């Protein structure tokens, strides 16, 4: 999951649902994708979790995009250059038009970027935190100024969609992508139709079905063509059907354990004081976890153990750092030194729907492992939106969060997860971790253009975070998809589903 929509959005789901049109029945050309949740909002920058990205990534374009393997490619901007170290100029694609037929004007793009940069509801403020000014340049040009040299700007901009708000009688926001919105129900089904009248693209219907058994049955009987993010159990069931294909990809998805790092009191622990403020407790947690056993038991070995917040292919991964091993004796000694030899009881929040049971299994194995040092977990399964609401509002004491670092850069992940929470930064730092040293390293990395020097800074950041233990990386997850045999489909590293790459042959 790329962390999701802002707080309160999911709370108004029921109120919106009745006011929106339901999805139409799928015709013979429609490709139906079934997922456990749907977008709550059509503002593409108000959310960045998987369910929304799968849908809205087909409708709205960024200036610069990432292809399926995270290589930068032109999108709404056909080219760009840097006249000096802190100025970026983007030339808009000639003839670019909104879905309502109007030509895209630079002022509208500037307005969209400003909303993403300054709107408190925007989930994309961290990507734009280094920008100091957004304006127009020459004809068809957008000019961005950064506070310091910032070589990662293009990969950051690839996460920021350009849109025009709904107005003039239009029901939905307007984009420039290959699809337009046909119907939408907040948190429910969304139907997309090709933006061009004579387009060869297939219409898409993203249908919300939470029960994994029903999802698989729909795939078997032809009511849908793609089911993403299968659990190991469901993936095994797919392999037995000759009409279906199981497609796997080792992507960027990881899972980590976060905790209430900063508060004196935390809401879901049976102690008067917050035990996670004590470094000895955090280190005990890190010492008791057996990642190999967690992977083997919870995910049937599909994936890899992980002790950093990015996968080895990402820029900033600290290679050569010894992986921690489980040390039960050390963990028990640390708990005793912290004055908690008998442990405590704490609620563990996690995604219990979108992950189709795999997070349930991760929570169950963690409960066994942490129980060895007296930390007794009360698992609380939540919808993705509910979990993110708790993380962002810090209404949680201990949680497991899945994360997809779509920029392929530790610096970007650190902006979201490790920077001191301030407006536009640290938006998913659910434990309130705050370190002047870590913040300075994050800032230094963003202002350094030389790759070798930047890599050295990010390695220092990894060492700082490893010492402080505000989060505990657990696993790299394998992405598994169930796909109808007649559909051509190749997973992307960022897990998002793009209609332009889908072909179906029902002959």
Structural class: alpha+beta
| Mean pLDDT rating | 90
Helicity range of the residues? 25-40%
- Main sheet characteristics: 7 strands, mixed
CATH topology of the domain at 252-407 and 471-478: Dipeptide-binding Protein, domain 3
- Beta content comes to 15-25%
Number of separate strands: 21
The low-confidence runs, each spanning 5 or more residues with pLDDT under 50, are 3-22
The separation of the N and C termini measures: 36 Å
What does this structure look like?
The chain has about 500 residues and is an alpha+beta fold. The chain has a domain of about 160 residues: Dipeptide-binding Protein, domain 3, CATH 3.10.105.10. Helix content is about 25%, strand content about 25%. It contains 14 helices and 21 strands. The strands form six sheets. Strands 13, 14, 15, 16, 17, 18 and 19 form a seven-stranded mixed sheet that branches. It has a four-stranded mixed sheet with strand order 1-12-11-10, with no helix packed on it. Strands 5-6-8-7 form a four-stranded antiparallel sheet, with helices on one face. Helix 10 links the parallel strand 16 and strand 17. The longest helix is centred in the C-terminal third of the chain and has 18 residues. The relative contact order is 0.17.
């Amino acid at each position: 999951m790329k962390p999701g929509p802002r707080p309160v959005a999911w709370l108004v789901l029921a109120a919106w649902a009745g006011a929106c049109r339901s999805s139409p029945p799928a015709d013979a050309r429609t490709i139906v994708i079934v997922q456990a949740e749907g977008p709550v909002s059509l503002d593409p920058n108000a959310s960045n979790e998987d369910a929304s990205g799968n849908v809205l990534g087909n409708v709205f374009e960024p200036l610069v995009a990432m292809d399926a393997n995270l290589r930068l490619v032109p999108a709404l901007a056909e080219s760009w250059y840097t006249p000096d170290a802190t100025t970026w100029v983007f030339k808009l694609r000639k003839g670019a038009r909104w879905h309502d037929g109007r030509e895209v004007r630079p002022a509208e793009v500037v307005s969209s970027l400003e909303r993403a940069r300054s709107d408190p509801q925007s989930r994309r403020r961290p990507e734009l935190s280094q920008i100091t000014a957004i304006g127009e340049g020459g004809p068809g040009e957008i000019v961005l100024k950064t506070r310091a040299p910032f070589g990662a700007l293009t990969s950051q901009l690839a996460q920021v969609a350009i849109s025009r708000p709904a107005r003039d009688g239009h029901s939905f926001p307007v984009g420039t992508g290959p699809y337009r919105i046909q119907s939408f129900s907040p948190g429910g089904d969304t139907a997309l139709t090709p933006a061009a009248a004579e387009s060869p693209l297939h219409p898409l219907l993203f249908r919300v079905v939470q029960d994994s058994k029903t999802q698989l049955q729909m795939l078997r009987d032809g009511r849908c063509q793609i089911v993403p993010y299968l659990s190991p159990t469901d993936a095994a069931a797919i392999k037995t059907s000759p009409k279906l294909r199981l497609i796997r990809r080792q992507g960027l998805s990881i899972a980590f354990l976060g905790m209430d790092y900063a508060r004196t009191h935390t809401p879901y622990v049976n102690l008067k004081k917050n035990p996670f403020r004590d470094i000895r407790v955090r280190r005990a947690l890190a010492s008791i976890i057996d990642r190999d056993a967690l992977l083997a038991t919870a995910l049937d070995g599909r994936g890899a153990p992980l002790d950093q917040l990015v996968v080895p292919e990402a820029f900033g991964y600290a290679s050569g750092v010894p992986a921690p091993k489980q040390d039960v004796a050390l963990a028990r000694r640390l708990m005793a030194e912290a004055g908690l030899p008998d442990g405590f009881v704490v609620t563990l929040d996690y995604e219990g729907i979108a992950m189709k049971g795999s997070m349930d299994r991760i929570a169950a194995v963690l409960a066994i492992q942490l129980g060895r040092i007296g930390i007794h977990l009360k698992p609380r399964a939540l919808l993705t939106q509910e979990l993110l609401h708790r993380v962002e509002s810090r209404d949680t004491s201990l949680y497991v969060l899945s994360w997809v670092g779509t920029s392929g850069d530790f610096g970007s992940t650190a902006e979201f997860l490790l920077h001191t929470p301030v407006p536009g930064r640290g938006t998913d730092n659910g434990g309130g971790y705050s370190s002047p040293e870590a913040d300075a390293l994050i800032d230094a990395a963003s202002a350094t253009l030389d790759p070798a020097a930047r890599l050295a800074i990010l390695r220092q950041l990894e060492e700082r975070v490893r010492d402080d233990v505000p989060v505990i990386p657990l696993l790299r997850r394998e992405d598994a998809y169930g796909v109808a045999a007649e559909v051509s489909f190749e997973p992307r590293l960022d897990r998002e589903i793009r209609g332009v790459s889908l072909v179906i042959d029902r002959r």
